[in-house]
Amino acid sequence: MNADSTMQPMDFSGKNVLITGAIGNLGMACAELYQRLGAQLALVDRSDDRLTKYYGAWTPRPLLLTGIDLGDSASVDRCVKRVRAEYGAPHVLVHTVGAFRGGKASHAPAGDDWEFLHKVNVGTALNLVRGFVPGMIEQGYGRIVFVGARAALHASANYAAYAASKASLLRLTEALAEELMGQGITVNAVLPGTIDTPQNRSAMPDADFSGWVQPHAIAHAIAFLSTEAARDTTGFALPVYGRG
After folding, report:
1. DSSP the chain
2. CATH superfamily of 5-239
3. Rounded mean pLDDT for each run of 10 residues along the chain, 244 residues in total
């Protein structure tokens, strides 16, 4: 049998991988996995000291892009220019940044939840693709993976704003995949269930944690979608629900 890339283990040697939200639980899990798989990392976060403290001693040392506000197009432009100057266009873009709010009925007096959640969950992704996709097109290669949510497929009571923002991210995923079809660039999303993090355990102390999905399991799903083995998969939303 002739071996091809679909039969090979995940290997990102020679690939530049950019990860946003790199100091979050999922961002850290992704960074650790991609580094083990040989990638050259560019790590983005709004934090200055925490990003440097966590990753500063890594060997090889990642490119650390601190103080980046992904909701601000000018800040993203600075990030793009720095990455291009150091590495060129990324081969892989993993966007883990997102926000969660809920608990209000749709008919309740309006707050800023709709605007805030759409800005963070969709606007940041749009700023990133506007900044980085032109370079991916130039090099004829790219893998983009967004982090959606189970709620994108089915909204629960009192969580309309959150579900709608994540559903919008899926529509962006699908449209961008169609727009980039045939240019060597794939665009996919993962849909986690409840992620087993210290923050979620603290917020829901009476929940059954055993069925929650682990950050490293999501990271492996993301990494697979950015491999050569998944080169024919685009516009896809992969559920990673755990056992909940």
Report:
1. ----GGGSPP--TT-EEEEESTTSHHHHHHHHHHHHTTPEEEEE-S-SHHHHHHHTT-SSPPEEE-S--TTSHHHHHHHHHHHHHHTSS-SEEEE----------TTSPP-SHHHHHHIIIIIHHHHHHHHHHHHHHHHT-EEEEEE--GGGTSPPTT-HHHHHHHHHHHHHHHHHHHHTTTTTEEEEEEEE-SB--HHHHHH-TTS-GGGSBPHHHHHHHHHHHTSGGGTT--S-EEEE-TT-
2. NAD(P)-binding Rossmann-like Domain (3.40.50.720)
3. 56 96 96 97 91 92 95 96 95 94 74 90 97 97 96 84 94 98 97 83 81 91 96 96 74
